Structure formats: structure tokens, C-alpha cells
UniProtKB/TrEMBL annotation:
A single cellular component GO annotation: Golgi apparatus
Protein name: Dymeclin
Pfam families: Dymeclin
Keyword terms of this UniProt record: Lipoprotein, Myristate
Tagged with keyword Lipoprotein: yes
Region (Disordered): 32-56, 180-204
Highest taxon of the lineage: Eukaryota
Annotated source species: Umbelopsis ramanniana AG
Annotated Low complexity bias: 46-56, 186-204
GO terms (BP aspect): Golgi organization
Family recorded in the similarity comment: Belongs to the dymeclin family.
Species lineage: Eukaryota, Fungi, Fungi incertae sedis, Mucoromycota, Mucoromycotina
Length: 768
């Protein structure tokens, strides 16, 4: 046989390219990664206010809070010895929590001007650095307490303020400027009172819980925090990760609120990536670099804990002061039903987004080795992103249910790395329309072999497979949400790689599919047949409207994988196989004729469009051959469909690449056409012809056909897959969190939006 159908560039034959909607030839990927010509260390930090037509509905802060925050951001030094001022800022009154998108916008408008002042003044006043010291001290002391009934107001307020100002810094300052805001031009000098406090605290030994809480309320800066040689950014991430791993997020509403704020803060610290034009410019991502080089060894516990939070699906604990939020969440939590279902569980939802951010970064570290004074980064730490993928891969299944377990079992769950695959599967099956859950399902299918085997071995494939097919069908028909559509097609391709699964869906009948509007008369079809119909429809619509080569390549790869197991094909499925082939064939002939007229050198320089259609035609021939070579006697409907369109294949007899495939089909067509002619029926009905075909199969011998290598395609994720996943995940963060993100500054989403536009209308690099 001639060469098999080719794949897109850089992908080996018979290996399906990763379904990542990125055009490698697109000019937008030609980005200069060199360092800026002019140093940024001496530029005055500058933040620009967000442009928006909305106006704050009300003052966000109380008059007391606003006054002291203004002092914090002003050119006045708020010394840490001024405990009354710091207590007024951090202890007197809890800062308001944003419960809605309007609240988030009001908070943005209330603080953007303050952040501009703080960024400009902090180099001299170091007020933000003192605030950071208070936060680090509060976090350290909080972790030493163990179980706690109520988070001190000082701890929450310090975390909230650092998160709010860090969000502005991340969106407006360069990486070097951001670093200087956290680390300062030099170590913050300790005042005499602070030194005395440090010495007395050091002499006191291990303090009691009540003493530690009192110290937190007195805003004593922990001496060990000041003496810690690590950068303040690294300390902050260390304590935030420890909070995520150790704090019970649902012990009460106070811990829930604080835990959620810790998740928000980590997301905000990573958001420097959101404000860049591409995902792989890591030299400007201060906190992402710290995570890569310092916290790779904690990937497993972080993944387990975030996954545990997601699987618990717990609503916020009740709070008498939170009645308004509970009512708001119930009626208005999100713009759509999908968003509402995700926002009903804030910790679960935010944990999932953070898990996706951590797991969809670079597959091979972040490129060059970064060395700091006295420290050479460990190779293991450079594999930070891979460590998160590996942590997902190593999670094992456990028969114990996760939801409803006791606290001691929860600890065992996190430390052992085992989860209930049944529970996880149930969550996915019931919420595939939620995009972030779709992405997590993708990560588990691709990375975790045990979970993949569990999914493929279930006796009820329809519970998750039919929803996937439905979403593919509706996405194709609606011409929307192509990023999620690509993920669904990868699911089908991964499923189709399993021969036993392919056989099982050929025996499973489905009925009453109201969403399948293409042929309402199809009331009873196998799950395998339904898959063929949906994928064929996707190929047809794609070639007509979207013209995305990756999409139809993946569809055809899945059909090819299924072809060896196709038996008792439904009449409409057989008809569609042949009719879609005929449609593609006619278009190919038309394009080939047009190109030949305009280009005498066609044979030497075939166009990309011609190659795409040639590959599709070759795949169709291979698929039909595969079905009939393996199961001709079990597929009379396909034989009948070939007889009806037998003239469509003759044009390819002399094609060097296709001649052997065509010879097989014509051998089948000629044999059964001769049997029908011998019956000498004037106007035979469909049932009569099928009866003749059925009788003729008894004398058919398989040695009449030439055998070809088995069709088998495998999904392989590309090494630069983060160029698709990072913008996609940030797009979800952008619209799923109660944090205001300025569209004009979310530059990584420019590429994401461009991808969506191209997939809606086609692009120059797609087939025309």
C-alpha cells in the first residue's frame, strides 16, 4: 500500500497531533524573548487606573479604614512602632469581603488610586514591607496554633490588603519592580522597640496558645520572620502553601473565609502571567519562578489537597453575618447555570482553578537555569510543572468514599495520595459542561493510567460518553466554545484507543436522543454508531464552515480506531460514511481541477489544501477497508451503501497512493453487484437487495482482499501545550473568580480570543 495519510507538520505518521488549536505558522507566535534593552530597575514604578464605563455603587471601605489605608499608601512613614495605627488598620474592624462581581469592581476602583500611591512611595516609606512583615508573622503564628476556632481579624486583614495591592502590582509593574516592592532596596531596619520585642520573645521559649493569640492581636512582629534569610516572596508562598495544606477550610465560616482568601492570594501572585502576551516569558513572573525553583518538592501534597478540596464539593459553613451572601449566592451566583453550579462551592472551585494553573505550565521546567547568590537551583525543582503532572499521574484509586469521611480519614487521604475514582468519575459525568472540570478530566485521562483504566472498564460507558457526544454535537452546531470542543474530541480519541471499549460501545444501544436533530428517525442506534454520526457531522461542518485541519484530523483518527470493531452498522451510519466521502471527493475534484488550470506545476508543488483533501480521502478509503476486511459479513448495510455509490470510487483507480485501497473496495462492489444482477430483479427493494447481500456473504472468502496494517492512532500532547492551556485556564480564572481583572491588561487572553475568532471564521493557515 502507498504511504498512509499524512499528519500535520512535525507529527509522525499514524500519530494524531495533539489537539491544540495553535497555528505554528501564525505570525503571532514570533515573539522576541530577549531581555529588555534598557534596565528597568531605576524607572519610577507606575500604575495606571483601569478604564471602565462602570461606576462604583458605593464606598467600599468605611471612613475609618479608608483614612488609615490612605496613610499606608501615602508618603508618610507608618512605622511599625506605631502600634495604634497598625491596630486601627488590622485589628479594629474586619475589612469587607467581595461577594459579587460588583463588589470586586468596587474594590478595584477603591484601591487603584491607592495602589498607584503605594507603588510610588513604598521605595522610601517601606510601608508595604512592614505590612508584609505583619502578615508573615500572623501566618507563622497562626500555623503554630494548630486547630483554631476563629481567625484573628488582624490575620485576615493583613492577608486581604496584601492580596489587593499585590493584584495591582502584578498587573502594572515589571518583574524587577514587583520584586523590589516585596524585598525592598535593603532589609527593613529594626526599630529599638521591635528589637526589644524580639529579644523578649526569644527568651520566653514556647508560648501557649492564648499567649500566641494575644501576640497576634498585639501585632508583634515575629523575630524568626525577620531573621529568616529567605526572600519575603518565598516566605509568603511558603506560609500560604502551609495554610492550604494544614488549615481545615470548613471548620467554621472564619476559617473558610481565610482559606478562600489564601487561595485567591496565590492566584493573584501568579497573575503576572495573565498580564503578559505569552505564557512562556517566565523571566518576568517573580512568584512563578519562586514556585518553580523552591517548591517543586511539595507538588504531591499540594495536588492531593487541592484535589481533595475539589472533590469535597462543600458549600460555605453557615454564618449569621453571611445571610446576605448565602441568599445572593443561591439566586445570583454567576451569569449562567453552569457558572452557578461551579460558584456554589467556592473553596472547591478556587482550588480547582489553582490546580489547573499549576498543572498546565511548562512540561520541561522553565528553560534556562537560574542561579542566585550562594544557591544553585536543583534540577528537580526546575521540573516544577512536570512534578505537578507527575503528582496527578501517581494518584491511586481507593474504595473508601471521600465525601463524608472523618477528619482523621481526610488526613490519611491527603498523605496516602489515594482517592475515590468512583466519586471523581461521578463529579465529571455530572458536570462536563463546566470547562474547568473538563480540563481536570483531561489531565487525569492523559496522565493517570489507573484512572483511565477505571473509566474504560466501567460497565456503564453511556454515563459519560453520551454527554461528551452531546456536547461535541452542540458545539459543532452552535459554532461556539471551540477550546472546550478540542478537549472533548481528545476524550473520544483516548477512548477509541482501547479495543475492548470499542467493542463494548458497538453492543450498547441508545434510544430517544432528543438532542440529535440531524436524523430524528434514528431511534435506535449503537453507541458506536452514534459516535460515528457525531464525528462525521463534525468533519462535514468543519470542512464547510470552520476549516480547521486539527479538528477533522482528530475526528477521523477516532473513527479509524473504531473501524476494526464496527459491526452491524446502522443503515443511516453506513449511508453517512459513504455520503461524507462522496462530498469530500467532489470538493477535492473541484479544487484539483481549479488548481490544475492555474498551476501547471501541480504535481511538483501540490497546495496545502490539496494535501488536506488527499489525506482525508485516503483515510476514508482506509476506514472502509478496515471495516470490511475485518467484518464484511457483519456489515451488509455498508456493502449496500457502496453499491449505491459505486461510481464514486472509479476516479481513484489510477491514483498511485490509493489504487490498492480502491482495488479492495471495487472487488467487494463487483462481487456483490454481480450477485444482485444474477437475481434478475426489475426494481428490487432495499430489503430484497440486503437479503441477496446476506446470502452472498456466505460464499465470500476474505482472501479476495489485500490486507493492510491495522489502523491505530494515539493521542500525544505537544511539548508546547501550555501555549493553549495557559491562556485557556487564565480565561476561566478571569471569569470565574470574584476578583476584578482588567480586560485591557489581560494580554495573555488576546491570544485566546484570537484563537476563538479564527476557529469561528477560519484563518489563513487553515484549509480554505
Amino acid at each position: 500500500m502507498s504511504n498512509p495519510p499524512s499528519s500535520p507538520p512535525s507529527v509522525p505518521n499514524k500519530i494524531v497531533p495533539a489537539s491544540i488549536p495553535i497555528r505554528r505558522q501564525s505570525i503571532r507566535h514570533s515573539i522576541d524573548f530577549t531581555s529588555p534593552t534598557h534596565p528597568v530597575s531605576h524607572r519610577q514604578p507606575h500604575l495606571s487606573p483601569s478604564k471602565s464605563s462602570h461606576a462604583p455603587s458605593k464606598p467600599y471601605f468605611s471612613a475609618t479604614h479608608y483614612t488609615i489605608i490612605r496613610i499606608l499608601c501615602s508618603s508618610s512613614v507608618l512605622s511599625r512602632g506605631d502600634l495604634e495605627a497598625w491596630k486601627k488598620l488590622l485589628c479594629k474592624e474586619k475589612l469587607p469581603v467581595p461577594y459579587s462581581t460588583q463588589d470586586a469592581y468596587d474594590l478595584e476602583m477603591a484601591t487603584v488610586g491607592l495602589a498607584i500611591e503605594l507603588a510610588a512611595n513604598n521605595v522610601r516609606t517601606e510601608n508595604f514591607n512592614v505590612l508584609l512583615l505583619h502578615l508573615l508573622s500572623q501566618l507563622r503564628q497562626l500555623l503554630q496554633l494548630g486547630d483554631i476556632d476563629q481567625i484573628p481579624t488582624s490575620a485576615y486583614n493583613a492577608l486581604f490588603l496584601v492580596r489587593v495591592f499585590s493584584k495591582h502590582f502584578a498587573g502594572n509593574l515589571s518583574g524587577e519592580e514587583l520584586k523590589r516592592q516585596y524585598e525592598g532596596p535593603s532589609a527593613t531596619p529594626a526599630t529599638e522597640s521591635a528589637t526589644t520585642t524580639s529579644q523578649s520573645a526569644a527568651k520566653s521559649g514556647i508560648a501557649s496558645v492564648s499567649d500566641m493569640i494575644l501576640d497576634m492581636e498585639k501585632l508583634k512582629i515575629d523575630p524568626q520572620t525577620e531573621q529568616d534569610p529567605r526572600p519575603k516572596g518565598e516566605q509568603l508562598l511558603h506560609y500560604l502553601i502551609a495554610i492550604i495544606l494544614q488549615l481545615d477550610s470548613h471548620a467554621n465560616y472564619s476559617t473558610h473565609e481565610f482559606y478562600l482568601e489564601a487561595l485567591n492570594t496565590i492566584i493573584v501572585l501568579l497573575s503576572t502571567q495573565l498580564h503578559q502576551s505569552t505564557s512562556d516569558r517566565t523571566e518576568y513572573n517573580y512568584f512563578i519562578n519562586i514556585l518553580m525553583t523552591k517548591f517543586g518538592h511539595q507538588a504531591k501534597p499540594i495536588v492531593f489537597k487541592l484535589l481533595h478540596n475539589f472533590m469535597e464539593q462543600k458549600a460555605p459553613p453557615p454564618s449569621s453575618s453571611n445571610v446576605v451572601y448565602n441568599a445572593y449566592s443561591y439566586f445570583f451566583s454567576g451569569k449562567t447555570n453552569v457558572a452557578s453550579s461551579a460558584d456554589a462551592f467556592p473553596v472547591a472551585d478556587r482550588s480547582l482553578l489553582l490546580l489547573l494553573l499549576l498543572s498546565t505550565q511548562f512540561k520541561d521546567g522553565f528553560g534556562e537555569r537560574h542561579e542566585t547568590e550562594g544557591d544553585t537551583t536543583d534540577e528537580q525543582n526546575l521540573q516544577w510543572a512536570s512534578a505537578y503532572r507527575q503528582a496527578i499521574a501517581e494518584i491511586s484509586g481507593d474504595q473508601e468514599p471521600v465525601i463524608g469521611s472523618q477528619n482523621e480519614k481526610d488526613v490519611k487521604y491527603v498523605s496516602s495520595g489515594s482517592i475515590s475514582f468512583r466519586r471523581l468519575y461521578t463529579i465529571f459525568a455530572g458536570s462536563l459542561a463546566i470547562e474547568e472540570r473538563t480540563l481536570l478530566f483531561y489531565l487525569f485521562l492523559v496522565e493517570n493510567e489507573s484512572f483511565r483504566v477505571y473509566v474504560l472498564s466501567r460497565s456503564d460507558p453511556e454515563t459519560i460518553y453520551i454527554p461528551i457526544l452531546k456536547l461535541v454535537y452542540e458545539s459543532i452546531e452552535g459554532k461556539t466554545n471551540y477550546s472546550q470542543l478540542y478537549i472533548f474530541l481528545i476524550f473520544i480519541l483516548i477512548f477509541s484507543q482501547d479495543d475492548i471499549f470499542n467493542e463494548s460501545i458497538q453492543k450498547f444501544n441508545v434510544t430517544n436522543l432528543t438532542w440529535f436533530t440531524e436524523r430524528p428517525l434514528v431511534k435506535n442506534v449503537t453507541l458506536g454508531g452514534l459516535t460515528m454520526l457525531v464525528l462525521l457531522r463534525a468533519v462535514q461542518v468543519n470542512l464547510t464552515s470552520h476549516k480547521d485541519a486539527y479538528l477533522h484530523t482528530n475526528c477521523m483518527a477516532s473513527i479509524a480506531n473504531m473501524s476494526n470493531s464496527m459491526m452491524d452498522i446502522h443503515p443511516y451510519v453506513a449511508q453517512r460514511i459513504v455520503s461524507v466521502f462522496e462530498l469530500i471527493s467532489k470538493r477535492y475534484q473541484k479544487i484539483a481541477s481549479r488548481v490544475a488550470d492555474n498551476n501547471a506545476l501541480l504535481q511538483q508543488q501540490p497546495s496545502q489544501e490539496i494535501i488536506v483533501y488527499q489525506d482525508l480521502i485516503a483515510l476514508f478509503f482506509e476506514i472502509m477497508n478496515s471495516i470490511l476486511v475485518h467484518h464484511l459479513k457483519d456489515n451488509p448495510q455498508l456493502v449496500y451503501a457502496l453499491l449505491l455509490k459505486r461510481e464514486a470510487f472509479a476516479v481513484y483507480r489510477l491514483n498511485a497512493r490509493l489504487s490498492e485501497l480502491v482495488a479492495n473496495l471495487e472487488a467487494i462492489i463487483n462481487y456483490f453487484h454481480a450477485r444482485v444482477s444474477e437475481a434478475n430483479l426489475r426494481a428490487p427493494s432495499t430489503s430484497e437487495v440486503l437479503e441477496i447481500i446476506d446470502l452472498a456473504t456466505r460464499t465470500w472468502t476474505p482472501d479476495r482482499l489485500k490486507s493492510f496494517p491495522e489502523l491505530k492512532f494515539q493521542y500525544a500532547e505537544e511539548l508546547d501545550s501550555q501555549q493553549f492551556f495557559c491562556p485557556y485556564v487564565w480565561a476561566l480564572v478571569h471569569r470565574r473568580t470574584f476578583i476584578y481583572w482588567n480586560d485591557e491588561k489581560a494580554h495573555i487572553l488576546d491570544e485566546y480570543r484570537l484563537q476563538q475568532q479564527e476557529q469561528d471564521g477560519g484563518s489563513a493557515n487553515d484549509i480554505a
